[in-house]
Amino acid sequence: MELREKQQKILEVAIELFKEKSYLGSSVRDLATKLNIKAASLYAHIRSKEEILEWICFGVAQNFFDELQNVKNTKLPPKEKLDLFIDKHLSIVLKNRDVTHIYSNEWKHLEERLGEFKELRKNYQQEVEQFIAEIYVAENWELKSPSFTTRFILHTLNNSYFWFKRNIESTEEINEEIKEKLLYGLLGNTK
Questions:
Q1: Selected residue with higher pLDDT from 96 and 113
Q2: Res 179: pLDDT
Q3: CA distances from 174 to 39, 87, 139 (A)
Q4: pTM
């Protein structure tokens, strides 16, 4: 989804506002005040505050799907594909921690498209589960519970933004540390 220039500015300010006050604690009036315009003027650019939350949630979800497809389409060996998947997923999570926080914690406030979003999350988890199961089979690793393993990996990756200070510039160190802990915890020494 391509946002117009004014919508992009509204989104940027809304992210700051949602971070500061939460989605429910923010109003269109608060957003208009931060943008230095009248609340009624906002409706020329957005349907509602919920539309902004949709932009965030569906936008991040699309990024996850796109990167998963890119990883699946590589010709890398299975373990390297898993490493790449972790790198790509983490890069989305860590690229903008505020957006990730909103995506992870505020999605339940979607109303009109909540069912659609839940289905999207479920489909992503299923695709990741299938991807991981195929890697485990190819590597001859024991996989007792594909569903639990997938949920564990996704939960770890999606919440990694909590663990690192905001002033860390390089996500490479973060990626390596999480990858090492995650894979070591699931597989034993993978080196």
A1: 113
A2: 77
A3: 41, 10, 25
A4: 0.87
